[in-house]
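User: Show me sequence and structure for the first protein, then do the same for the second.

Assistant: Starting with the first protein.
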Amino acid sequence: MPLQTGNAKNNKLTASAAGDTLLGLGGDDTLIGGASLDTLIGGLGNDVYVIQSQQDIVQEDAYGGTDLIRSGLVDIYMDTVAYYLNGTSFVENAQLTGLLNLNIWGHAGNNVLTGNDGNNSLFGGNGDDKLFGGLGNDLLYAGNGNDAVFGGAGDDTLNGYQGHVTLSGGAGNDNIYTMEGAYLVHGDAGNDMIFGDYMKDTLFGDDGSDMISGGANHDRIDGGNGNDDLNGEYGNDLLIGGKGNDSLFGSFDRDTMQGGEGNDLLRGGSGLDVYEGGLGNDTLQSGGGGSVMKGGDGADEFQAYLGADVMTGGKGADRFVFANNWFDTNEVLISGIKGDRITDFEHGRDKIDLRNLAETETFIGARAFGNEGESEVRYDRSKGLLQGDVDGDGVADWTLTIANKAQITASDLIL
């Protein structure tokens, strides 16, 4: 195994035979490996390693300068090369060129790792690291510390860890995972999948049709452009659909959902949720915890059941659909002032759909219930109360409040 040794100056050492060992010592050295198994040891100084074999080994002293790995290969190799930067090998920075599939492990220092056009695996390790995937379908891991991870072009997988971490997928259909830290995540262009953890995350889908799950804390989730699927999960979350036909699911706790532009589906969970449909023909489905639901512009559909929901249709011909339980229509609406409320019903434009509350119903105007055994619906405009006698015993089984006391006739109801 031939040994080439530099000195305290800036040396350029090139492997000339199989199994060379290049030892730079002091100075800012450039060490160029050959076509077979070579060992490159920079020593002190800011060194550059040029790699031309998948079998090369790079070693550095701990904190022996700010060093850089460059891949000198230009051909496609299906096998992988691993440059171990932890343990006995310490290289701060790596810049990979060409098309070789490379793996890099960072150490406890602050690393800058840059992938090439191949499918790279970059591991930041401890320290405040920056990882750049480059072209290719890359696998990027942030270690402990305040890291920034950029996937670049390609379908990348980004994994966060502890610390304050920024994850950016770049172009391509990326999978992004957070874990045990405070995160700012951008999916960027492409149809991305983003998963929050039990910490407080800020998650942006950006362009593309993205799927984002918040995890178990108070998260901000913004789908951006595209037809996105957002799930708040646990915590008091803010879900923003943005442009496109989005699906927003509040899940548990108290969530705020903003559909934005497009024909959106907003579904609440068990908490006291706030819905804002925005532009477009939206569907707002109560989760049963009692919600404030605003349709905005467009012909919106409100689906209300268990819980005291407050519904504002906004502009457009809106439909209000009622069932006390979408899974068990034998249950009846909560009666009295604790029931559901429509704030801005417009006669002749909006519709109230009561078909889920009884098999057959008859609208009797303002008169009292009276036909024994018949399901009837009455409306007292002076009080703004729309009521139904489902079992025909002459007593209201459900009450819906029309807060603006609008005129309601049989043509406004779907029975």
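Switching to the second protein now.
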Amino acid sequence: MKIILIGFMGAGKTSVGKELARDLKLPFIDCDQEIVNSLELQSVAEVFDLVGEEGFRQAETEVLAEILKENSLVIACGGGVVSDPKNLDLLQGSKSKIIWLNAGFDTISERLTDDTTRPLWRDKEKAKELFMERQPIYKNLASFEIQVDSLRISEVAAVISDRVKGD
């Protein structure tokens, strides 16, 4: 079983993914961390500073293609994975459960208030535009969606676990 978590930055994909993988006894891979590792850098911000968003997105497609060759794992994708049509094709063809962690912009804003590590959060107005652009893409791509605003990490992981075990 391959489970892919999608959603905007700050929705909880990495935290939920780790918990879910532990619950299901599956390996966990964070796409953003794999990109950072593949470029032998320290952070997503460093990747953006060094190669820009375009370079990051190119590395993201390469890393995603490699990760999707694996079976039986939980994958947390970066929020912008849906911005490249090649990634959408990869995800749609992956025979995976794609789960959208849907958090409202106010919730994301609250969670990321003091976060300086996310390059695309530096400009809040631009982040809001990206949020609005990506919502319908997440919705169309997802096998199912979970509204995460009022749920704890463990609750989101439990909902997903129950759902995928039932399918």
